[in-house]
Amino acid sequence: MAVFTPLTETQVADFLARFDAGSLVSLEGVPAGTENSTFFVTTDQRALVLTLFEQGEFGELPFFVDLLDYLEEHRLPVPGPLHDREGVALHRLAGKPALLFPRLPGRHPRDPNLAQCRALGDALGHMHKVSKHFPGHRPNPRDINWLLPMHHKVLVYLSPQDQTLMKDEVEIYQEVFGGSLELPQGTLHGDLFRDNTLYEGDRLGGIIDFYNGCTGDLLFDLAIVINDWATEPDGRLNAERHDAILTAYQARRPLTDAERQVWPMMLRMTALRYWLSRLLVVYVDPPAHDLTPHDPEQFRTILRARLEHGALPLPEVNA
Predict the structure, then answer these.
(1) May I ask which residue range the UniProt record assigns to the signal sequence (predicted)?
(2) Which of 159, 220, 297, 319 has the lowest CB atom count within 10 Å?
(3) 246 SS3 class
(4) Residue 290: is its pLDDT beyond 70?
């Protein structure tokens, strides 16, 4: 159960009294999640989600509040946090930072169809187009500046072949991304896997879990999406899903020549980013709670596939 800080109905009822959200009817802990405590809260007016933040810095949370407010204002399907009668969204509950959100409709797509892929590509392109103007800033915590020092921590746990693979890849990424290369910048979701979306049939009902949100290369975000949404179990890319996402995305925000040039390398770097972060959880910094870490092997397989088979051709943008 991924509820690390239990709450009583009395605590939640008192918390709700600050908002114009109705009176508590039911409270249910949500088993999904690996970092924060999440609850479904039903009032006599609406369905809500209450999140207690178990990790991270309190000072970073206003960035996420402002980002979600901004994206909601621009008609993105995100859960804009509720603000109390004084206009404040971020509070403390049971000693932890707390936010209250509307509960968005839909379910996670396990095997997304092409219509769902197109909806995701369209929403991400829309988000990246408007996020370039978001005034908040939070450095990307998982870019090349993180890969360089952190990959040394896991090398001892890898086979000699994988040690060479990881060291060689990081050295290449440093050459490509660590210099004067300029790619379009904006605010990223940072972790837009399938389980961070909600669908009602083919309709995208919500993009959730923005707590890896940051500022950086928009292409980084897009590569994370393709490596999850358009990848087969053997690591190879699914051409139909790949093209559905990227065609819809580029109808909103066409890729630049520089982005097209480094696209294959960005797919590789974001695959290694998740291989490394999962290795760190398994071997170096296990979760504070009794949770099963994600399998690092999945993204090693994806990285090997990107190296062996390369990237698929990017869809062209109609003039």
Answers:
(1) none
(2) 319
(3) helix
(4) no
pLDDT tens, residue by residue, 47-95: 999 999 987 667 889 999 999 999 999 999 999 999 999 999 999 999 9
Token match 């062209």: residue?
Answer: 316
CA distances from residue 84 to 114, 201, 232, 306 in whole angstroms, order as listed: 40, 33, 44, 48
Do residues 191 and 262 lie in contact, with contact meaning Cβ atoms separated by under 8 Å?
no
Residue whose token pair is 């890729």: 255
Task: Please give the backbone phi and psi of residue 254, each rounded to the nearest 5 degrees, phi first.
Answer: -60, 140
CATH fold for domain 114-309:
Aminoglycoside 3'-phosphotransferase; Chain: A, domain 2 (3.90.1200)
Residue 134 phi/psi, 5-degree rounding, is: -70, 130
Across 51-60, 117-126, 287-296, which has the greatest mean pLDDT?
A: 117-126
The CATH code for residues 9-102 is 3.30.200.20
CA-wise closest residue to 240 among 152, 117, 104, 124: 117
Residue 37's DSSP bridge partners are 52
pTM for this model (two decimals): 0.94
Tell me how far apart the alpha carbons of residues 50 and 28 are, in angstroms, rounded to a whole number.
10
pLDDT of 291: 65
